[in-house]
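for the recovery benchmark. tokens below, seq after
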């Protein structure tokens, strides 16, 4: 079930609450969960042939079920729609403090036209997003959530018109937190939608992720029949948003509404990413007051 709400720039963040019943009680239990993960390399097919991953030795892929296990049981996120999987560096464990990961999902909202890509003033867009965040903070504070400051671009948006792939990163500051939050985004445009890759990391890992981004972009490709170039205007749906709305953090519907945003937390370090898509029942739960570990 999809839920939409007016979220200009889509930068309201909600608290993730650890599922105490399912979380490991000891480090040994957590290690046992990690040992049970099936680490994969080489060629991986996503969603029945929608796209293909080519995972090199420096990385591992884990399945949707294993990705959910890491996100929920090890990193304390509430259950939500499963991702298509997760990419992790091969030299670290999900329990390591220097671990980071990239979740993969798919938003089938139609063919995203990129004719506005070269016309966007990202400085102006950032200012609008910052204004929206400040406006949304009124509601956050009213509901006992910490205010957010959109500090700026951690990495300005870059769109490759030849491959129809793009990446950008935002730096966010949550009131009272010592370390700023990294919101790193990778998008791959296809015939009927967008592959959504989001890095779960802290600001201190920005340099490493920037270094690895070209390789990550090269790992993921739509299969024949699903590529951007396969778009058929006679039969295919066109998305109601373009590149600017994609970068702003929300996917705009015709009425100017934005999908609810979601949060993933990397362990106890409170590294957060903002992605797309949530479930209506969680929306109600996340707005309740006096929850532990609220951000």
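predicted aa per position
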């Amino acid at each position: 079930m999809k839920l939409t709400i007016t979220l200009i720039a889509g930068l309201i963040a909600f608290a993730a609450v650890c599922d105490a019943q399912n979380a490991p009680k000891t480090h040994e239990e957590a290690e046992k969960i990690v040992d049970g993960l099936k680490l994969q390399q080489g060629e991986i097919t996503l969603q029945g042939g929608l796209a293909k991953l080519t995972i090199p030795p420096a990385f591992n892929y884990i399945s949707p079920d294993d990705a959910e296990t890491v996100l929920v049981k090890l990193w304390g996120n509430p259950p939500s729609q499963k991702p298509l999987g997760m990419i992790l560096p091969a030299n670290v464990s999900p329990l390591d403090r220097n671990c980071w990961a990239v979740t993969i999902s798919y938003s089938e909202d139609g063919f995203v036209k990129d004719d506005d890509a070269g016309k966007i003033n990202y400085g102006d867009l950032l200012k609008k997003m910052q204004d929206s965040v400040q406006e949304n903070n009124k509601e956050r504070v009213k509901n006992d959530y910490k205010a957010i400051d959109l500090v700026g671009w951690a990495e300005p948006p870059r769109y490759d018109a030849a491959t129809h792939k793009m990446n950008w990163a935002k730096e966010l500051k949550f009131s009272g937190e010592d370390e700023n939050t990294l919101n790193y985004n990778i998008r791959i445009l296809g015939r009927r939608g967008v592959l959504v890759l989001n890095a779960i990391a802290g600001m201190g890992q920005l340099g490493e992720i920037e270094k690895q981004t070209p390789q990550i972009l090269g790992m993921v490709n739509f299969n024949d029949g699903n590529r951007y170039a396969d778009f058929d205007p006679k039969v295919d749906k066109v998305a109601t948003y373009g590149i600017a709305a994609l970068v702003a953090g929300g996917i705009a519907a015709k009425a100017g509404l934005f999908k609810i945003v979601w949060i993933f937390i990397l362990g106890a370090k409170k590294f957060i990413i903002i992605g797309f898509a949530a479930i209506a029942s969680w929306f109600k739960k996340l707005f309740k007051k006096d929850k532990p570990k609220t951000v």
